[in-house]
Amino acid sequence: MNARVVSVRVKQILVVEDNEDDSRLFEIFLKEADPSGVRLKHSPTVADALEILKDQGEEIDCILLDLTLPDSFGLDGFEMIKKGFPKIPIVICSGTQDESVAMEALQSGGQDYLIKGKFDSHLLFRSILYAIERQDMLSKLEEQAFLIKENEKRYRLIFEHNPHPIVLYNYDCEGILDLNQETERIYGFDREELLHMKFSDLFIGAFSGDRRQYMALHNGKNIPETHVHRSKEGTPLLMEITSYKFQLEGKEVVLAILVDMTKWKQSEDNLIQSLRDKEALLQEIHHRVKNNLQIMASLLNLQANYAKNKEVTRELRDTESRIYSMSLVHNELYNSKSLAEIGLGSYVEKLLDNLWNVYGVGPEIGRMIDVGNLSLAVEKALPIGMMINEIATNSIKYAYSEKKKGQFYIKAKSGNGIFYLEVGDDGKGIPDYPQIEAKETLGLQLIRILSKQLKAKLDINTSAPGTRFQIEFEY
Question: Most Cβ neighbours (<10 Å): which of 14, 283, 296, 358?
Fold first, then answer.
């Protein structure tokens, strides 16, 4: 006794059979095999079957077809149904035991060929069930094949139309396996020429011919490297190479994505050269400005030597020191590696050296400079230098008139975007400062104007011992 098969879902079977006894027998067999899982539709002719399939083709899981029908004979009806509805599996159930017909039917896409009177319910149901499963599997395979083909087409388009050269080559022998059209354009070789070359043939110099000397590859993505390649004409090409090493069809291959850096490098070199030219020009400008200011300072010095009025001589000396403080900024910039900033320590040292020399100050008045490694931009250094010049000049002229020894000091620091500067001496102070401030002397006016230029907070302490100027501004 045959085992009963229980379906997971109801099967819709179209029986194309003009013999009512055979048609009833098929129904009995299928009900016996799976009483609740089969639903049958009957058609006595191929024409009727085609009409049913047009209306309900999506619901039909399998067709049970007799080859001898009123409107068809042999494989004619089979071919008509198969052509119109190729996705529906067909099991042929014929009274003719003809091996050639059976073979032709199977080769044409029939799922099975059964001989009437030589099968039972189990065999019939199993044949139909397997036909449905095979058709489902075939449909899935066709769908997968279509998707694979579409993906291959998509990736081929991406590969071919990538804006950068791409080369696929064999890891072991370096033979080029594939390339895109941009590779042909950049290197000047045609496709056939490149497919007969090794990847290392594209390199220039000692690296060509031995990949392992110029590129250490490991599986997956590798770090981009830059090497010099050659075009067909021998023109050097600076190429950045990003490599991906992986397995393809049992072989180790490398996908090299290349970026032509030649023009970028040329532009960079031109930009660097242009920058060097501008730096040289700017240094020359600083040098000439410094020379002109020093000439002016020298002229004022000569004029001071010939002046007979002490007041005039003093004013000329003061103006000379102010001009020197400005020329010193340009001199420091001319000698500095940076044309944007100057070192505060060196600048202040030279500024005070000049003042001590101009006013003939001896070692009895010492100098203490504590500014660390601070640097100042040009727009900050010039007003700071002139302020220090004015403060130091006043200290030299007035702070030590009653005592012969002392110390002038400069302290500076920065933090949290704020620059702090303290300049002063340990002299006698300025006891009559309110009267002096009311007169608005040139030196004091300059200090206030320059502090406003810096948007600085200015605090002046004149009580003995000494005078102290504190300046604070955003750095």
Answer: 14
Q: Hunting for tokens 């109801």 — which residue is that? A: 10
According to DSSP, the residues that pair with 169 across neighbouring strands are 176, 254
| Closest C-alpha among 379, 462, 391 to residue 421 | 391
Domain 11-152, architecture per CATH? 3-Layer(aba) Sandwich (3.40)
Sorted by sequence, the CB contacts under 8 Å of residue 321 that are 6+ apart come out as 354, 355, 358, 389, 393
Predicted confidence band at 182 (pLDDT cuts at 50, 70, 90)?
A: very high
The C-alpha atoms of residue 14 and residue 77 are separated, in whole angstroms, by 14
pTM of the model as a whole: 0.46
For residue 198, the 8-state DSSP code is B
Count of positions (residues) in the chain: 475
Query: pLDDT, tens digit, for every residue of 112-142?
Result: 888 888 888 888 888 888 888 888 888 888 8
Burial class of residue 270, CB neighbours in 10 A (0-12, 13-18, 19+): exposed
* Alpha carbons 341 and 51: distance in angstroms, whole number: 93
Please tell me the predicted confidence (pLDDT) of residue 2.
46
* Band (282; pLDDT cuts 50, 70, 90): low
CA atoms of 38 and 12, how far apart (whole Å): 6
CA 144 to mean position of chain CA atoms: 35
**How many Å apart are CA 262 and CA 307, to the nearest integer?**
67
DSSP letter for each residue of 377-439: EHHHHHHHHHHHHHHHHHIIIIITSS-S-EEEEEEEEEETTEEEEEEEESS---TTHHHHHHH
Residues 366-387: tens digit of each pLDDT: 999 999 889 888 788 888 888 8
For residue 355, what is the enclosing H or E element?
helix 344-358
Q: What is the mean pLDDT of residues 73-100?
A: 86
- For the domain spanning 266-474, the CATH number is 3.30.565.10
With DSSP H G I counted as helix, E B as strand and the rest as coil, what are the percentages for the chain, rounded to 5? 50, 25, 25
Q: In angstroms, rounded to a whole number, what is the distance separating the alpha carbons of residues 5 and 186? A: 67
State the pairing for strand pair 220-221/236-248: antiparallel
The answer to whether residue 187 scores a pLDDT higher than 90 is yes
